[in-house]
Every structure is written in C-alpha cells, then in structure tokens.
C-alpha cells in the first residue's frame, strides 16, 4: 500500500480534477506483477493500467490501491468491473471514494462478485493526499488553503516605508525573507499541488512576484495566478502581466472595471472578470471569486496574500486549511504587519479554530498545518 501511495503522489499536478490514485498488483507468490498511477491526460485509471501491465498474472492476485475503484461510467468504464474481469481475488483500498457517484458502490460491486475487500489501510495518508478532490467533488468548490510565512510574534512584514507597501514575508521593503530556504522550497510543493494561487493587488504592487510553480515537477495545466484587484491597478509592466502572454494563466477579479484599463490588460492575455463589491471594505467579493474558480474546474486555491486578504478569507469563513510557517525571529512594534488585519474577531467564541493540526520542521523554521473545515464533510 505504501508503494501505491508513492505512485499516487507521482500524479500530483497531473490528475485534477480527478483524484491521485496509484495501484499495485501482487501475485500469489508475493511478487509485484503490475503497478501504475493515473493521470488525467492518460485517461485510464491506475488499476486498469496495472491490470494491463500484469496481463494473465492477475488471476488470483491481490490489488492494493489508495482509493475505491469506481463503479460508474465516466470518461472511462467502471474500474470495479475491470478488476472483476481480471480475476483479482482480494482488494485492499485505503478509503472509500468521496465522490457521491461512487461512495461505496465500487466495494459493493466487488463483494457481490466474490472479491474479498479490505478498507482502511493507511487511510489517513490517503485522505490527506486527495483532500482537494474530496472537497471539490462534493461541493464543486475548491479547497482553500491559507498560507503565510511569519515571525514568532505573527508578523508577515516589518513596518512599511512611506512610499512602499509592505511585502508579505519577502524582499523589497521588508529587508529580506522571513523564512528559510527550506521553508520556501516547501512552499513550491504546495504550489505544485494547487490549481490556483491567489493574492491581492497590494502584494503585487509591493513585491512584484511571479507567483509560479517552481517545484520543477511536471503539471497538466499551469498554475492559475489569481489577483483580487478592485480598481484594476495591476501594473502593465509587472512580472505577472509581462509573463501572461497566451498562457491563459492570469485571472483578475475586479469590482470597478474601467474599460480602457481592462482592454489593456486583456491585450496582454490577462482575463478580467467582475465580481460584486464586498461591503463595506470596497474589495472584490472573495466568496464569489472562489465560487467562480470552482466553476472553472479549479479544485484547490492557495492564498498567499497580505494581511487584509488573509482577514477577508478568515472573516468570510472561506478557509478550509492553513499552512503557516514560523521563523525564529521577533519583529515587535505596532507598525509591523500582522498575519491578519481588519477588525479581527470580537471574542474567542467567534475565533477561527484550527483542528487536526500537524507540526513540520524546515531547518530552523517550523510550520503548523491544520483544518478549519473537514474537506470530507465528516465533522
């Protein structure tokens, strides 16, 4: 099963909006005779690819995979039927498919055909791997991850200078990175596993980032760069604007669409869409933006914004998961930029509560990973 999960992870970035699945077939002598993983463009599911690789050696064999075989007709036929036809006698699956169109139906079809089915081996690892798929397939909304790098006292940047906005955790006016090379390398892994990255235009004005996936790993579609920009202030000479081209990977949500400015941005290959104004702060309605991304088939969004974008996401109860990196530094002062700005929650009963958290180490830094909502809806 660990090998099946390793194979499934090779599909990260290559499967959305489908789940990442790996499959391993072991014959009666304990020898691996077939193994593979799913990619969206490859069409065939992992268990079918493993069956084809194993050939006649599937008779009486055991199949290990991290997700229940499908039982419905989609882009491919039901994988449960392929498993039965291959003569596989035992199936070990980590978890039931969260897709309501399957949700136990594949297991039942296997059992009805006399196949021995075991569920739950390495279930937590499997659920963690496909949490974006689980959220999207149930709700048609992306998994929203709020990421930030900060000091031990919760600051994402030092006080801004008079003429430069503070960059959240990066160079420019902040005078250097807050977090370590190791932590920032892991951020690229988060980006690679995400379909879209979202920031406010203030971050662009302050830091002029590229917002690209620099993990070096292959992906099926480019990371969609999403900018919340109420008045279309995105500079035409910014890194994002200049690298848009014909890649169709930059989307700007605005609330006041100046026709001239919109035409200039669209001429650079940038999509501009209007969403309602979020009252009373005059920013694009983030909830409507997230809903629109779901409509575009985006299964996961990584928010890397500044203090106000972070607060808007938290206040709107839009965040499913946090990944917060802490460096062993203290900025102090009242002018340093906090992780989340705005008015803040008025009491502890309203505060966003993080559950099921994990701690990670990255050199001298550490990170907290946790959930505000269960992607599987099992709360």
Model description:
With 379 residues, the chain is of the alpha/beta class. A hairpin with a 5-residue loop joins β1 and β2. It has helices at 2-10, 46-54, 79-85, 105-112, 123-129, 131-139, 181-193, 201-207, 239-242, 259-267, 286-295, 307-315; strands at 22-26, 32-37, 62-65, 90-93, 116-119, 143-151, 155-157, 196-200, 224-228, 250-254, 271-274, 277-278, 283-284, 300-303, 321-327, 337-338, 355-362, 365-371. It is built from twelve helices and 18 strands. The longest helix is centred in the middle third of the chain and has 13 residues, at 181-193. It is elongated. The chain has a nine-stranded mixed β-sheet, sandwiched between helices. The chain has a five-stranded mixed β-sheet with strand order 2-1-3-4-5.
Query: Quaternary state, please?
Result: single chain
**Strand order across the largest sheet:** 11-10-9-8-14-6-15-18-17
Uncertain runs with pLDDT below 50, 5 residues or more? 163-167, 170-174
- Give the overall silhouette: elongated
Rg over C-alpha atoms, rounded to the nearest angstrom: 23 Å
Write down how many β-strands occur, each being a DSSP E stretch of 2 or more residues.
18
Instruction: Spell out the helices and strands N to C.
Output: HEEHEHEHEHHEEHEHEHEHEEEHEHEEEE
Q: Counting H and I runs of at least 4 residues, what is the number of helices? A: 12
Assign the structural class, choosing from mainly alpha, mainly beta, alpha/beta, alpha+beta, or little secondary structure.
alpha/beta
Question: Helical content, roughly?
Answer: 25-40%
Proportion of residues in extended strands: 15-25%
Q: Biggest β-sheet, characterized? A: 9 strands, mixed
Distance between the termini: 27 Å
* Mean pLDDT metric: 93
